[in-house]
Amino acid sequence: QVQLVESGGGLVQAGGSLRLSCAASGGIFGSSFSINTMAWYRQAPGMQRDLVAEITSGGRTNVADSVKGRFTIGRDNAKNTIYLQMNSLKLEDTAVYSCYAMIGTLSYWGQGTQVTVSS
Predict the structure, then answer these.
(1) Any bridge partners for residue 6, and if so which?
(2) Cβ–Cβ < 8 Å for 9, 16
(3) DSSP code for 91
(4) Distance from C-alpha of 50 to C-alpha of 52, rounded to nearest angstrom
(5) pLDDT given at position 27
(6) What's the 3-state SS for 26-89?
(7) DSSP bridge pairs for 62
(8) Structure confidence by residue, pLDDT tens digits, 26-57
(9) Residue 83's pLDDT band (boundaries 50, 70, 90)?
(10) Whole-number pLDDT of residue 34
(11) Residue 34: what are its φ and ψ, rounded to 5°?
């Protein structure tokens, strides 16, 4: 059974930084490149879940316009881990951030980590 474990969420003041990590483990066979796209999504209360940033096994990235220039996604294939460096955080970045991975043709989600930005 594949598990995605997120860490790094918390409370931060506006303008501050946080770094999220998501490690995939269990049930992964062969090369780490069997993990295709990994991504971060976020969902604020009462809102839909939106893509924040995604990264392919080859390192191609796609970042939402709302966080472009402030957030950076990175990946360590050897560790089956992705990172989200969040700088210049704004109040509107407050949300539950969830990790996503596509392994083969199957999709997996982490349980989410809360990020709260205060004024």
Answers:
(1) 22
(2) no
(3) G
(4) 6
(5) 67
(6) CCCCCCHHHEEEEEEEEECCCCCCEEEEEECCCCCEEECCCCCCCEEEEEEHHHCEEEEEECCC
(7) 54
(8) 766 554 447 889 999 999 999 999 999 999 98
(9) very high
(10) 74
(11) -70, -20
Mean pLDDT over each residue of the chain, to the nearest integer: 92
CA gap 71, 69 in Å, rounded = 6
Across the strands, what pairs with 13? 118
Secondary structure class of 25 (helix, strand, coil): strand
DSSP letter (8 states) at residue 104: T
Beta bridge partners of 83: 21, 74
DSSP secondary structure letter of residue 93? G
Q: Which two tokens stand for residue 5?
A: 């474990």
Confidence of residue 105 (pLDDT cuts 50, 70, 90): confident
For residue 117, what are its two tokens? 């930005």
